[in-house]
Design brief:
57 residues; alpha+beta; 2 strands; elongated
């Protein structure tokens, strides 16, 4: 069993190039690379968690 913890940093409009809109696809790629059975997140806002639900198989 693989368990992953990931601080995805909350979505903040003032993050500029580090904003969620620029990071979200990379975060999905990292998760898909390691193929965890369980993911624990820190700092995720509801819309970010919904993005995971909708974009992870």
């Amino acid at each position: 069993m693989r368990i992953m913890t990931f601080n995805i940093r909350f979505e903040n409009d003032r993050d500029g190039q580090n904003g969620w809109v620029h990071r979200k696809d990379l975060v999905i790629k990292v998760i898909e690379r390691y193929k965890p059975d369980i993911i624990g997140t820190q700092e995720g806002k509801w819309n970010q968690l919904l993005f995971f639900r909708d974009n992870l198989s």
